[in-house]
Amino acid sequence: MTIAILGGTGPQGQGLALRFARAGVPVVLGGRDGGRAAAIAEELMQKLPAGSAAITGLDNEGATDAAEEMVVLAVPFSAHNATLEALKSRLVGKILVDIVVPLKEGDPKKVDMPPEGSATEAAQAILGDEIPVVGALHNVSAVTLNNLDWDINCDILICGNSLPARKTVMDLVRKLDVTPYNAGDAEAARCIEAITPILIRQNISKQVPFSHAGIRIWAPDH
Fold first, then answer.
1. Mind listing the domains of the chain with CATH numbers?
2. Average pLDDT estimate for 121-140
């Protein structure tokens, strides 16, 4: 099952491409410049072990068309709405996996939520109910994703208004050897997306003796 990652030339997109390809999922990187996306895809292939699935690169339109079922949106929030408006007709019949966090311009330790309440909800408003939007993978460090020697050190919270779409995305995320949790409908993205700037604050704090932190859901010990 081929997936597309739009904004795949950025750090988060590249890291996800590496992880999914190593797990056997073919990936098409999408970018505004298809030639640059193809060049980055070739570079990423050099980092993968033998037996990995292919990473290729196209422009955003071509990558969206190449996706069989799921398209991951990993663009900066400044390009979030315009990208979806441009690709809306090509997303019909597919699931959009929105990993975008609306970080405040000039201060990534805060969010600046859109009027809809979250990036996930904004995407659903733009695409309409016929195209399911699932929020996922908001709180994973790009540095961690790009270092294939490291395990992904967090659980993944999944939200969206379509339960079948949520379950489909949870199955995809499990391929990364992480645990996904069903966090409910799209409104939950207001909380999930807001976790990211809190993690950023901890990761850059001189008072915290580590970086690239994630979150986990812990079972009680009794």
1. 3-205 (3.40.50.720)
2. 97
